[in-house]
């Protein structure tokens, strides 16, 4: 190193640099001697002790239950030349065969099912019906952190509201079984409903693979003795499989209590006879190759025979089940360019219905004035992000949930919904939410989308709806946006994302991604 480069350095730094230079020179000299004496081999030659440094390969444990597969054999031993046309053709045939098997599993079945055809698990009935005679007649979740507690119940001067808050907050988890033991479906729950009977809580749940679970919550847990050998029985459940893909929506019409209608992503709507335990397809496209995933179904309160539905393609359909199924008897409209996630018919004015779509719009439609060529809504409102569901109640209110982390309430009843004539319309400026409630709707990939659901026939003047809470609760709100309760309890370890009200009783059920049910009564 030159004197110019060390001029400004301290004596210590000068000595350190001198030591480094001396060491480098010594190493270089030793390396040259070693190479001349042949001590270092070629870099490609493996070292003698390489095998010692390897980690021992763990022994594989043979599983007794694993199937014995045939030994693999090369194409050469089979007499097939490498890269030959025969080998390529065989690979293509195998791929197409696997693809066809997967397609067949997902294709809807149009035939009639009996109980034995659908039965998967649980209580297999022999000659009995599924229902008894008594029925036939904002951003980040904080698990278990409450946002509404006992102190909030009392924060009101409205006596009726306070009474209802105390009543709803007083609902208790079903005591007979822990929620962890009520596994009603094998996969994630996508849709649920109560049977309209008031004699006992009967719950139906549909999951992502087409399973239908049924729980009769009037059953009592049998007494278990002190003997350790006595089993602690699980609740009696029934699991059927009427569909090949996700059951997206379901309902029981109150005037037709023996029939459950289920809609599915397999493009079909089926009717399950709860007395005979048989299932028949009531609607489906002409060809099995047509994919029109049904996202939601509903029926007018005064008509138990006409089905209405929406699709993931933005379509809306109507079909009277008393007529033969054909292109002439099915009416369809294209109401959105993107997915319609949910819709409902107004219970009190059945010619009006609302839709919520991925294009961020809530829209209200009038069936009396719905053009097939260019359907125009009565009113529409655009949110910042997509709208998941639009639920109508008998008072003419619409509750929506949206990915902008809000619940919006629109009061069309106060705007004269019952007196609107055919062709009535509302401008975008006049159609705004009357109430906006902050609510975390960020479900992510593994939790079913949160949707509000009204109690259709409340036993007081105050309308109320329920919706899942990402903190592992179910929230209950009034029609004016006041929170009435936050339902929770021990044993709830997952988000009860699919929350439903019984149409007249203060019974609330929540379904989770693990196929389990929470029930408050």
UniProtKB/TrEMBL annotation:
Residues 34-80 are annotated as: Disordered. GO terms for biological process: DNA damage response; regulation of DNA damage checkpoint. Residues 34-51 have a biased composition (Polar residues). GO terms for molecular function: DNA binding. InterPro entries: WD40/YVTN_repeat-like_dom_sf, WD40_repeat_dom_sf, WD40_rpt, WD_repeat_DNA-damage-binding. DNA-binding protein that binds to both single- and double-stranded DNA. Binds preferentially to UV-damaged DNA. May be involved in DNA-metabolic processes. This is DNA damage-binding protein CMR1. Keywords: DNA damage, DNA-binding, Repeat, WD repeat. Belongs to the WD repeat DDB2/WDR76 family. One of its GO terms (cellular component) is nucleus. It comes from the Eukaryota. Pfam families: WD40 (PF00400).
């Amino acid at each position: 190193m030159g004197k110019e480069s060390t001029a400004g350095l301290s004596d210590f730094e000068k000595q350190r640099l001198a030591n480094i230079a001396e060491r480098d020179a010594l190493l270089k000299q030793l390396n040259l001697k070693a190479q001349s004496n042949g001590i270092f081999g070629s870099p490609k030659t493996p070292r003698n002790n390489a095998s010692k440094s390897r980690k021992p390969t763990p022994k594989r444990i043979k599983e007794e239950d694993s199937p014995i597969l045939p030994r693999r054999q090369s194409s050469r031993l089979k007499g097939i030349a490498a890269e030959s046309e025969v080998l390529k053709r065989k690979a293509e045939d195998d791929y197409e065969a696997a693809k066809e098997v997967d397609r067949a599993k997902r294709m809807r079945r149009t035939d009639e099912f009996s109980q034995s055809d659908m039965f998967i698990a649980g209580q297999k009935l022999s000659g009995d019906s599924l229902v008894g005679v008594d029925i036939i007649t904002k951003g980040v979740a904080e698990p278990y952190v409450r946002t509404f507690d006992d102190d909030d119940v009392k924060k009101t001067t409205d006596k009726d509201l306070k009474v209802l808050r105390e009543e709803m907050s007083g609902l208790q988890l079903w005591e007979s079984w822990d929620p962890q033991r009520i596994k009603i479906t094998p996969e994630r729950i996508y849709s649920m409903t109560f049977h309209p009977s008031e004699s006992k809580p009967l719950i139906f749940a549909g999951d992502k693979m087409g399973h239908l679970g049924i729980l009769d919550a009037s059953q009592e847990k049998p007494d278990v003795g002190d003997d350790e050998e006595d089993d602690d029985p699980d609740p009696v459940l029934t699991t059927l499989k009427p569909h090949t893909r996700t059951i997206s929506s379901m309902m029981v019409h109150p005037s037709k209590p023996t029939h459950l209608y289920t809609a599915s992503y397999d493009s079909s709507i089926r009717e399950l006879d709860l007395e005979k335990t048989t299932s028949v397809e009531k609607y489906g496209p002409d060809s099995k190759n047509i994919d029109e995933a049904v996202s939601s179904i509903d029926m007018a309160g005064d008509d138990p025979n006409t089905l209405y539905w929406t699709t993931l393609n933005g379509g809306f359909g109507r079909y009277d089940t008393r007529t033969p199924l054909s292109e002439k008897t099915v009416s369809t409209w294209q109401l959105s360019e993107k997915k319609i996630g949910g819709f409902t018919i107004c219970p009190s004015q059945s010619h009006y219905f609302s839709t919520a779509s991925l294009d961020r719009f809530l829209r209200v439609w009038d069936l009396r004035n719905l053009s097939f060529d260019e359907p125009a809504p009565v009113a529409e409102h655009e949110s910042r992000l997509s709208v998941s569901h639009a639920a109508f109640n008998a008072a003419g209110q619409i509750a929506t949930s949206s990915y902008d982390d809000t619940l919006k309430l629109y009061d069309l009843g106060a705007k004269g919904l019952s007196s609107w004539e055919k062709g009535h319309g509302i401008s975008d400026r006049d159609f705004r939410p009357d109430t906006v409630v902050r609510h975390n709707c960020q479900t992510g990939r593994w939790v079913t989308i949160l949707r509000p659901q009204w109690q259709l026939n409340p036993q007081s003047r105050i309308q109320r709806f329920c919706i899942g809470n990402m903190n592992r609760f179910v929230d209950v709100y009034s029609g004016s946006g006041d929170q009435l309760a936050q339902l929770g309890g021990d044993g709830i370890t997952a988000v009860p994302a699919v929350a439903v009200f019984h149409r007249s009783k203060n019974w609330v059920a929540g379904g989770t991604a693990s196929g389990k049910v929470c029930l408050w009564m």
